[in-house]
Amino acid sequence: EIDCTIQRVGSILTSFFRAGLPSDFDSAATSDIAAYGRYFHAMLDGGVNLAPAQFEAMFVSAAHDDATIDATIAVAEAAFASLNNPS
Fold first, then answer.
1. Are 21 and 28 a contacting pair, CB within 8 Å?
2. Which of the chain's termini has less CB crowding within 10 Å, N or C?
3. pTM for this one?
4. What is the per-residue pLDDT across 55-83, written as a single tens digit (0 to 9) for each?
5. DSSP 35-62
6. Which long-range contacts (CB under 8 A, 24 or more apart) does 33-40 make?
7. Are β-strands 12-16 and 5-9 bridged in parallel, bridged antiparallel, or unpaired?
């Protein structure tokens, strides 16, 4: 299992590789930045371009149709699986 939480406001979101949502910068700084880096690269290898730093926001827009969101979810599932089973 991977500790990861998502903080979201509307269509803006950020993931934190830590148990529980951070409440301020100090708690956000306890996130596993190396795990985010591995996740970022796994997503990029799958064709999904995320913000390269864990402390940047991502946005979902009307340009993201159901097929794009479904494909992103599939890539994310594979990325998390690769984090659970590093080679």
1. no
2. C
3. 0.85
4. 899 888 888 899 999 999 999 999 999 98
5. HHHHHHHHHHHTT----SSTTS-EE--T
6. 35/2, 35/4, 35/83, 38/82, 38/83, 38/86, 39/4, 39/15, 39/79, 39/80, 39/83
7. antiparallel
